[in-house]
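re the bet — no i am not wrong, look at it urself. input seq straight from the record:
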Amino acid sequence: MKGGLVPKHWLIVMACIGLFTSPPAKAEGTTIIDGIDGYSIAVGIAQADTTILRGGIARNMKRRWFESGQWFVSGYWLGEISYWHSRSHQGGHKGLGELTMTPVFRLQTKQRDSGKFSPYFQAGIGLSLIGPTSIADRNFSTMVQFASQIGAGVRFGTRGHYQLGYRFEHISNGRIKSPNQGMDMHLIQLVIQH
């Protein structure tokens, strides 16, 4: 398909989304992949006329900090696999893949009643591996990148198991090598926890 993803790329993206968002099977109270606390899917846009599709898994840190009143800070590890596609007519590569691991810290309310919306605010800095190292007219120079993010959203549903939020993310190689053009991203993310 001219100007878009070729069919094989769509199959890869849809398989990743299915893998990361399908409900876990349970056997004697454990998930098939023990230790996964949630699944995420995100879509977004970035510079160089780029669209981003992501699937992820989350593992809670099982700790809380600064518990006072109705708010506290918690954290989780977020592992994601992404596919970027550029519709730009400049430069070379039109797509790249990304693997990311990020510790995310979240300020949230203690309210988790069914049917209630509870706000959260979060931030994190992690590591990404990308390949190839350029997309359209943007050159990242290295496979290893640093990904910083800030975001906000709401938890809802039974015990706050669903989360819908926005996050801004910046990725660059931290001046390891030039050029270091980086990329700014705007993402909408849905998380399902169990």
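see?? The mean pLDDT is 84. told u. also The chain has one domain: 7-193. so pay up
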